[in-house]
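User:
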Amino acid sequence: MVETKRRQFIKILQIAIIVISIGMLYLTFGIYLNSAVNEKFEVASQTDIERVYLFSKIFMVYLVFVIIVLTISIFQKSKK
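Assistant: Predicted structure:
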């Protein structure tokens, strides 16, 4: 009984992390697009824009990795 409640809690936590990661991915993609606009209108320096591009890409790859790993783990646990 305690084991099933624990598994349910972990599954709910994983789903919450996936939803939060999707939201963060959306925000990061918005920042990435905004930096492209800043580059077009030359609002920020080129080095700042390059840093934003780099960090946005790294963070987006990380978030996609987290989403994929958690989604796979949820489906594998539900098959058992």
